[in-house]
Structures are given as structure tokens and as C-alpha cells.
Write a structure and sequence with these properties.
Layout (H helix, E strand, L loop, with lengths): L2 H18 L5 E7 L2 E7 L4 H22 L10 E4 L2 H23 L3 E6 L1 H14 L2 E6 L5 E7 L5
Parallel strand pairs: 2-3
Antiparallel strand pairs: 1-2, 4-6, 5-6
Helix pairs in contact: 3-4
Amino acid sequence: MDEFDFNARLLDFVKSVTTAMGLSLEAAVEDTPDGPRVNLSGEEGEVLLRHKAEGLQALQHIASVIFRDELPDNQRLVVDCLDFRRDKDAELRQMAVFLGEKAKRSGLEQKLGPLNAYERRIVHMAVAEQGLADTMSIGDAAVKTVIITAKRERN
């Protein structure tokens, strides 16, 4: 994959969608270990964040579907606006670590959700990095709950 060409096409796509929505936003691609991240900024970005960021979620989904076959299996495309997703991701990581510690201390399972696939991945990774607890997703369809349990001693 030619990274520059990919990033340029990704930016063109996101800019064309936001322009078609009548929004004047700045867009930049940031290469992260998890995959490309499109960061949108500008006063009109608030439009994408209305109604629990449904507009941003939709843009993320469309871009992910269009470009997913060009990304390595271990990478995900992220579209963010006004650092909304970055802040929510940090909050979700903190909650996952807190619940992992609580599961370890109390021995009781902790539930977090319902979460979409992107959010579940953040929780699973945060708890795995912590090393104190295990996670599993339960539920149907795209929105599931993550169960966090104390890590069992291995014999």
C-alpha cells in the first residue's frame, strides 16, 4: 500500500463527504500504530457531533467500509472530529482499567456496555494491557456488552 496515495485518497473522500454535507472543515491524516486517523476540525464540526455523534459514526462507518480492504488486518481506520473520539476513547480506557481493578479486588464480574465493535476493541485492549482481568463480549448483533472478570490463576 502506497501510504501517501492511500492517505490522499482517504482525505479526498472525507473532504468530499463533509463538503457535500455543507460543512467547511479542515482534515488531516495522522498515521498511528492502530491505523490511519482522520482528524477533522473547524467550527462546523459540531454538526457531526449532534445526537450522540451519529454523523461522525456514520462517516466513520462509510469510510471504514470503503477503505477496509486496503488496510492490514490489525489496523482500523478512525475518523475523529474536534477530538471527540480521542476524548471518549481515553474515558473508555479509564473505565475499563477501573472495572478490571474492581473485578480483581472483588472477584465479581463487571459489565460495560452496550458497546459497538470499535468501543469493545478499546476495552479488550485496555484490560489486556493491565493484565489483571479477562474480557469477553456477549450479546447479539453489532452492539454487545463486555464482561470483565478477575484473571484466573493458571496451573
